[in-house]
Amino acid sequence: MSCYSISELEQLSGIKAHTIRMWEQRYGVLRPVRSATNIRKYCDDDLRRLLNVATLCGRGQRISQVASLSDEELTASVRAGCHSANCDYNEQVNMLLTALLAFDEPRLHYLLSKKTKRLGFEAMMLHVVHPLLQRIGTLWLTRAISSAHEHLLLHLLRQKVLAATEALPAVPATADTRRWLLFLPALEMHELALLLMNYVLRARGQHTLYLGQNMPTAELTEVCEAYGPDVLVTVLTSQPERARVAALAQELTALCPDKQLVLYGPLTRQEGLQLPDNCTVPLTMVDFIGLVEKSAVEV
Length: 299
Known about the structure:
The protein has helices at about 5-15, 15-25, 45-60, 65, 70-80, 90-100, 105-120, 120-140, 145-165, 190-205, 220-225, 245-255, 285-299, and strands at about 35, 40, 180-185, 205-215, 230-235, 260-265, 280. The protein is of the alpha/beta class.
């Protein structure tokens, strides 16, 4: 069982710490244990209950009414109201996080499908899934989430992105079509962002060649000669080593010296990182979308 501070509950639930304290003291929403130094500590059950309480209060229900519900009644109320078109993004993230913590795969699938139908696939990924992944990052720091949770979610999301991409019309490779080569460098296996980039490009009428995970740089020479990409796109999450990011950019630039290189991911956000002039580093997926739309206009 994991243990949380009140500041960690704030990060995970989106509810301010002073509100959590008020709910706890006035309505008995949570019952934390206290350390020898009188510091509140919360458990997994507290986190799940707070996520459900936050969801119902976000729908306009009064805390005095919600606080009196049992855990089973809270869960039932959340599920009963999840069809509402007025659900905000934070509420949707909380519902997904609650299902993930319970390893409730059918509910995760159902919620993701509902959000996609209501918002559209791209908006669902940007406004619901991205904040969910940020929350999961916080859960990793507190050791409240395991590799099994992460694998479950990423497997489902990968399925969703592939299905959405497959449903798009084919883009013919014509002389007027901008060509994008997408790949992950050697030993890099974190594919979700690259898959979403492929969807973004295809949805905007761009031609892509998707090579996926673990692509050694030396093997790209033949691909570049045959495909003739205008832009190379890669995501650096865990590879290469931080000190080798600039060297990898130089290698890719030498491979296709006259082409644009798009580098995305945590390893590209290093202070003082010196990159070749042909490199572009979008900080967010929204920035990448803007880059794609701008390039489409310029063609």
